[in-house]
Amino acid sequence: xxxxxxxxxxxxxxxxxxxxxxxxxxxxxxxxxxxxxxxxxxxxxxxxxxxxxxxxxxxxxxxxxxxxxxxxxxxxxxxxxxxxxxxxxxxxxxxxxxxxxxxxxxxxxxxxxxxxxxxxxxxxxxxxxxxxxxxxxxxxxxxxxxxxxxxxxxxxxxxxxxxxxxxxxxxxxxxxxxxxxxxxxxxxxxxxxxxxxxxxxxxxxxxxxxxxxxxxxxxxxxxxxxxxxxxxxxxxxxxxxxxxxxxxxxxxxxxxxxxxxxxxxxxxxxxxxxxxxxxxxxxxxxxxxxxxxxxxxxxxxxxxxxxxxxxxxxxxxxxxxxxxxxxxxxxxxxxxxxxxxxxxxxxxxxxxxxxxxxxxxxxxxxxxxxxxxxxxxxxxxxxxxxxxxxxxxxxxxxxxxxxxxxxxxxxxxxxxxxxxxxxxxxxxxxxxxxxxxxxxxxxxxxxxxxxxxxxxxxxxxxxxxxxxxxxxxxxxxxxxxxxxxxxxxxxxxxxxxxxxxxxxxxxxxxxxxxxx
Length: 516
Prior knowledge:
Elements (H helix, E strand, L loop, with lengths): L14 E2 H5 L2 H5 L2 E5 L7 E2 L1 E4 L13 E5 L8 H13 L4 E5 L9 H10 L3 E4 L5 H35 L4 H12 L3 E4 L5 E5 L2 H9 L1 H6 L10 E7 L2 E8 L6 H22 L3 H18 L4 H10 L7 E8 L4 H11 L3 E5 L5 E8 L4 H10 L6 E3 L9 H16 L8 E2 L5 H9 L3 H10 L8 H13 L4 H7 L4 H15 L6 H18 L1
Parallel strand pairs: 4-5, 5-6, 6-7, 15-16
Antiparallel strand pairs: 1-3, 2-7, 8-9, 8-11, 10-11, 12-14, 12-15, 13-14
């Protein structure tokens, strides 16, 4: 099933007064706007020819009324009431053909229309109203049919993506393609859960998100169109088209179709708004850890996600074997602003955002004390947002160093607590370190050497304690001695020599770090 549709900007189900006045047949009548020039974007739902003074009782709103004024000439009260009647009926505009009844625009009608804010247009060259009525009606019918067809096509395309198991981001990308503007999904607190659209345009929206969020409950305008997300009497978010350039009615139709699809996506996928929050945090923290996206470009996303970023102290943490839900619960319990997300390797990243006058060390320790059977790896606090990615990577390195060895560690582990192991972890991708590790361990990196490598790892980790090593490998001491002799022979080293043993130990730490 193809999901590629044309952009929807030209498929508005109505015409505006301005668009009607630009039609070739209307231009031939030399139209002149004499009142209500600021209201020309009103939607024209229908065109109606009427001369009666009480025309308003025949209208239902949105009509462009055509008249020659033949029944109004010479009676100022009827002229004023005619305009007021149109205003009460919420007509879109009134078009007066100049001629025998009114050779020039009547001041009474013009002034009344200006007071009411009703667009009033006079035609200096008369032509049959039937021609204009026929053309406008035909255009409106075609547009309404096109709008209905568009609505069904969009619904079919998005339903097809859901059926194919497409992720949320793919759905939003499709919606952004059709709308031609940034698309933002938020929770009820107006925190951004997901975005789509041209990256620079999305960043512009998020950069000003605090103001946009404050106005989110106001009326739509300037292309800001939203639709509620929810079902079964429960609202849990909204989708916003940010700066939609087409007709408002078409944009609202598109937003409604998008909202229907997102609700269906959530129901069929077994996800929740909270899951979308987790995905948003995961995307942000993954980008921070990777360093692929500059931190400054991620700042609008962080702010829009509800993370305080102005004049804050940031504490990057990585928790091994941590449950993201539990970590988030502890943050809320302690009242600590932060975001939580599981990383690709199973570790969980946490970024705390603390006020400058708060004690980051104490609060981090309180957070770690609330966790069970986990070790919290922390980087030093950062006061500049640009330094956060390096801090996240440092915390991840510390967590990896903790996971690779049995160490006596405090509840919050920092780089200084993992000593040499931490340093090697930070340098593991250096080509010189890689060459050093391969050169030092060359005799054990293939074949039967793997078993001996395990013995060597235990021997060095226990501080060259032969009894402990034999016990952990379930062998006798004589058997261990033979294996140690084989290791020394393959490597060409004397493990009783401290410097040579230290060199092999560093190489083994580097090898394990690279493998991990």
